[in-house]
Design a protein that fits this description.
Radius of gyration: 23 Å
Number of domains: 2
Largest sheet: none
Strand content: under 5%
Number of helices: 12
Structural class: mainly alpha
Shape: globular
Amino acid sequence: MSKRHIRISRLQDQGFKYLGIFSTFFGLIMLAIFISSILNEGIGRISWDFISSFPSRNPHKAGILSALAGTLWIIVITAMVAIPIGIGAAIYLEEFSRKSRIGKIIEVNITNLAGVPSIIYGLLGLEIFGRILGMGGSILAGSFTLALLILPIIIVATREAIKAVPNSLREASYALGASKWQTVKSSVVPSASSGIITGIIIALSRAIGEAAPLIVVGALAYVPFVPTTPNSEFTVLPIQIFNWVSRPQEAFLVNASAGIIILLGITFLLNAFAVYLRIKRSVKY
C-alpha cells in the first residue's frame, strides 16, 4: 500500500472518530436539554397530593394514583410471566437444543421478533388474550401482551450472557462428575447471572414506557379507581401522560411533565439497579 493510501486511510479513521464524538455529544446535549426542560416545567408539581390523587378534569386536582398502581400491576405480572419463560427458553436453545436447520430458523426468528414494532404485539394481544381468551381490556391481557413484547429481548440477552461463560467452567464441572443439568444450574447460570439480570431489567424498562400495545389491548385513558385484581380495567403512566398532553390547558402540560419525571425516575432506578447488580456479580464471579 502506498503512502498516499495510508494517509487517506488515517484521515478517514480520524474523520470517523470525530464524527462519532460529535454524534455522541450531540445526543447527550439534546437529552440534557430535554430533561432540563421537563424538570424546569414539572418538578414543582410533584407532591404527595399529585401522587395520591386520581385523575380529574381540574388540572390542579389531577394525580397519577390509578396510573401508577396500574403500572405496578402490569410490570409485576409481566415480569412473573416473561422472566421464567425467557430464561428457560434461552437455556434450552443455548445448552440443550441440537444445532439443526429448525433450530437456526427459531434463533433467527427470535432475533427478528426483538425488532418488531410494539403495535403489532398490541394487535396480537387484542386478538388472542382480549377476544379468544376473553380477558377483555384487563390487566392480565395487558401484562401478557407486554410479556410477549419483551420475551425476545430476555431470550437474546440471556443467550449472549450464557455464551460468554467459558467452556473451561463447564469442562471442570463435568470432570467432577456433574450432569449436564447440574452444570447448567450450578455453574453456567450463576456465572452468567449479571448479564441475565441486566437484560431482564432493560426489557422491563422498555415495558414500563410502552403505551401503544396497551391502548390497542384496551387500556383506558381515564380510570378513577385503583385496580384491585388482575381482571380489573387499568391505565398506565404513559397513557395518562399522553392524555394530559392532548389537553389544551397549559396546566395539564405541567402535569404531563411531572408524570414524565416520575416515569423517568422509575426507569433510571431500574437501570441503576441493573448496573449495580452487574458490577456486584462480576466482582463475585
